[in-house]
Amino acid sequence: MIKDYDADKRLREAYDFCIVGAGPAGITLALRLAGAGWSVALLEGGGREYTPRSQALYKCTSTGLEVFAAEDRLRYLGGTSNHWAGRCRPFTSADFAVPPPVEMPGWPIPYAEIERYLPGAMEIVDLPQGAEFKAVNPGLNGGEFEADRFLLSPPTRFAQKYATALDETPGLDVFINCNCVDLLFDPDAGKLKAVQVSDYEGKRQPVAARNFILATGAIENARQLLNSKSLAQAGVVTPDGLVGRCFMEHLNIDMGTFILRSGEGTDPRQYFTTDAFVAQYQAGRGNVLASVLADVQTYGRTAEVKHFLENLACDMGVASKIEFVAKFSCPGDGVISTLIEQFPNVHSRISLLDEQDELGVAKVNVNWVLSDSDRHTIKCIGSELAKQFAEMGLGFVKLNDFVYDTSLPLKMSPHAHHMGTTRMAASAKDGVVDTNCKVFGTENLYVAGSSVFATGGASNPTMPLLQFALRLADHLNQKMHSATGAAA
Ligand SMILES: Cc1cc2nc3c(=O)[nH]c(=O)nc-3n(C[C@H](O)[C@H](O)[C@H](O)COP(=O)(O)OP(=O)(O)OC[C@H]3O[C@@H](n4cnc5c(N)ncnc54)[C@H](O)[C@@H]3O)c2cc1C
């Protein structure tokens, strides 16, 4: 049942599972675990709708590249799925088999571990069962780029789609306006004993459970771990550890422009780097979208559009792109945008600030930085694309100078795909969670969402993070059956 914590603070004495955060990851886990017969508390800091007061708790500072993390994430029931775009592309086996060419290791599990959860994740985001991830155009001849393959979710809005299930699943208590403000660790037991929750007046109480799952998105998952004094005192979270480090995004680079050879169709083209490209250049993966701007002209009916774009004040990182688009006046000109892999890098990180939010939780700074390896990936993708466009006679690509001159600052924007801050690894030396998404050094604290990604590839993160959530639900179900002796 969905209860407003402002009005109803009655908790069970202890739950089997306490899940913090009701976005795609948290909702998926809550419904699976309650559906298996366990008692579950799903704690959501926001209400049923957007409120400035809840959203303000996401305010953070930025010392690196701008991520717009205060605006692009949404802090209410359903989380950021309330405005995600629904683009779905699965990881591939190569994402898991080939470690990144940097000092951090890649995935400690084979792709098969999550591949079997693909049909379940597709169903959750309303993709037809058995549907193929289709190419919309042919690849390029050189062997470096194949056609991209993806599917579009409607997009699924989790709070709406699962409203009845959240309200009616037996054993499930969903509390909205219920903010996690601390994680209370018992060092003798090696277990989290409760999460401390607060209403908006600052009244706190503990929620006790046998197992806990953080599902608050990649920045907040790290923030909650870093904010907990008891986890720090027990040495589970240490200042030089990996919690908050290896923050990754997908890179949307202003690669440049192109002019199509006349006679080429003007439909957008989407390409994806091949495994051969990755091996040959020791580079990351990337999706490239080449779109022809046939309609953006300074005259006629579209003049209004151009005027609108020029004047649009946008705080989500696309202002420079809009300015760039607005400069176009020639039908047939095209823009190239990307979704490029960033490699894990310990300097790209979330860290705590001294300042606290309204509820007494330390605020965070996001220092999103790229490494030389990332600049190498961008350069290789840009140069190869330009070469192959010319060789195939498709048209001419004019790359921006910062693509090939890596000493110049990049023009780019983020995709709001936050990943890596509680990365999965075989040991605590290289990560924060183990292969079952359990925080190293604890017996009962788990993490869900793309913060567990060891590498981010160039696939959109939501459907894959649901595959991980389904796998985690299976693991926890088995763990509880073993612990209680209940028949599976
Ligand atoms: C504009 C935009 C477009 C996108 N398009 C795509 C796309 O096309 N394809 C794709 O794969 N991905 C896309 N994404 C990314 C996608 O939205 C995220 O991957 C996804 O929402 C992450 O799910 P999550 O459950 O891990 O986190 P979230 O959706 O962020 O949910 C976290 C939840 O935790 C709650 N919470 C936070 N702190 C607390 C606390 N202290 N106490 C209690 N509750 C708390 C929040 O209110 C929220 O409900 C897009 C993102 C944006 C911003």
TrEMBL record:
Query: What is the protein name given in its UniProt record?
Result: GMC family oxidoreductase
- Report the sequence similarity comment from the record: Belongs to the GMC oxidoreductase family.
What cofactor is needed?
A: FAD
Swiss-Prot/TrEMBL keywords: FAD, Flavoprotein, Oxidoreductase
Query: For the FAD dependent oxidoreductase domain, which residue ranges apply?
Result: 16-219
Q: What sections of the sequence does the record tag as coiled-coil?
A: none
Q: Where is the Glucose-methanol-choline oxidoreductase C-terminal domain?
A: 346-467
